[in-house]
Automatic annotation (TrEMBL):
Peptidase S9 prolyl oligopeptidase catalytic domain span: 198-416
Origin superkingdom: Eukaryota
GO biological process, any: proteolysis
Keywords, ordered alphabetically: Signal
Signal peptide: 1-25
Keyword hit for Signal: yes
The protein, known as: Peptidase S9 prolyl oligopeptidase catalytic domain-containing protein
InterPro entries: AB_hydrolase_fold, Peptidase_S9_cat
Length: 429
């Protein structure tokens, strides 16, 4: 019998072979978006304001600087990628309360009683605890923990709680970093087994609470309440996009730290965290190695093929409220489209997976999914994976892209996925 990884890769290859060549479709909002390949640049741009970067260690001199250049691939592809990033930044900026708030750091303390919303996770996460560790003598004593807050904009949600773990050693002086993002209703403390495992191997491990989660939540329904408020008022983007803004600002902070190698910042996450990792890497090229876990899906494909139910069910109270407001007897595709357009503009059109995934090339990208995942259906990833594979091939980086759909697995992060992600970071970061 084939080992589990071999089975997963075999299934992926078989599925890919069945898929037709990607259609050169335009996004729903009009206009043609193509892919790009941009090799990181080591130069630093002058200026005081910081936003999404063009490459490791760089800092654009204004909010548009993040979209100004792309190396590798054709000039047309570079322009298209810059255009997609510019459009993404336009959306993020459209709902920022105050861009004049300087990025500052405030001290924090360890969280003794983490807040889990909905049904709290039961017991330990075996998959995370399976992450490879390095045997370090007195590892607990050598583990350095930092708790602090990044101020990314005005308002209560502009205060980002950060948990950082690393070993107490100074060799090398600058270390690679991996940012970890939690799934819906959880918090950064849930990720501690992964943080400790990677720290033991010499990485700086970082986790944040996404918007309306963990320390950014007040009660058991904060996240759902925020989603409903965004639907009613259109003043925030609590599903994915607002946290992406925080991750851009986190990139600013990490790039300035003396213990961080700014050219070696990886990002990963589970489910909602996988979506955060995906879109943060699209808009901010400082995230140089990317591993979304059970997070990537084709939102437009799900609508067009009536496969949106599982995703909707994960935040169903939001859609129920929208259904009532729209005078519908049941949730249908119109309700789904209107909700996405209100709380995550462009999610099912110009920023959807077929157009945004290829923009990550040539940075190493590993997509990990369950073959039976109803929230991230494999069939809905046909076109995105085909387009991404083509983008990586065109820039001579085919070995830096892989998609693995684990057989018999639904919407679940497994020990195998944790190991694949670990191997990927060790290989490329």
């Amino acid at each position: 019998m084939l080992p589990r990884r071999a089975m997963a890769v075999a299934l992926t290859l078989a599925l890919t072979a069945m898929w037709p060549p990607p259609r050169l479709a335009a996004p729903a909002t009009g206009g043609h978006v193509t892919v790009t390949a941009r090799k990181p640049r080591g130069r630093r741009l002058s200026g005081k304001s910081t936003t999404a970067s063009l490459g490791c260690g760089s800092k654009p001199n204004n909010i548009r600087g993040a979209t100004a250049a792309a190396g590798g691939g054709s000039k047309m592809e570079a322009v298209a990628a810059s255009g997609l990033r510019a459009s993404f930044l336009d959306v993020l900026l459209s709902r920022r309360r105050n861009l004049q708030v300087p990025l500052t750091v405030e001290p924090g303390s360890p969280v003794k009683h983490p807040l889990y919303q909905g049904r709290p996770p039961m017991g330990r996460c075996v998959a995370m605890e399976s992450c490879p560790r390095k045997g370090v003598v007195n590892s607990k004593e050598k583990l350095v923990e930092e708790n602090f807050y990044l101020i990314t904009e005005s308002g209560e949600q502009g205060r980002v709680p950060v948990l950082l773990l690393k070993l107490n050693d100074t060799t090398p002086k600058r270390k690679p970093v991996i940012v970890f993002l939690h799934s819906s209703y959880k918090c950064k403390e849930w990720l501690r087994p992964l943080l400790e495992a990677y720290a033991s191997r010499g990485y700086i491990s970082v986790a944040i609470d996404s918007r309306y989660h963990g320390e950014r939540a007040n009660n058991n329904s904060t996240y759902i309440d925020a989603l409903k408020s965004a639907w009613r008022n259109g003043d925030a983007m609590p599903f994915i996009l607002d946290t992406v803004w925080d991750l851009i600002k986190l990139g600013d902070h990490l790039s300035e730290r003396e213990d961080v190698d700014p050219c070696r910042i990886g990002i990963t996450g589970e489910s909602l965290g996988g979506m955060h990792a995906w879109f943060a890497a699209v808009v901010d090229t400082r995230y140089s190695v990317v591993v979304p876990i059970i997070g990537v899906q084709g939102f437009r494909w799900a609508i067009d093929n009536n496969k949106w139910q599982a995703r909707v069910d994960s935040i169903k109270p939001l859609f129920e409220e929208a259904r009532i407001d729209l005078g519908k007897s049941e949730i249908d595709t119109e309700v789904v489209e209107k909700v996405w357009d209100k709380i995550a503009p462009g999610l099912d059109s110009q920023f959807d997976a077929p157009f945004s995934l290829p923009v990550i090339a040539p940075r190493p990208l590993l997509l990990l999914n369950g073959a039976e995942d109803p929230r991230c259906p494999v069939l809905g990833l046909q076109e995105p994976v085909s387009r991404a594979a083509k983008a990586y091939e065109e820039v001579g980086s085919a070995d830096k892209f892989m998609f693995i759909a684990e057989p018999g697995i639904g919407h679940q992060m497994t020990a195998n996925m944790v190991k694949e992600a670990s191997d990927w970071f060790d290989r490329f970061l």
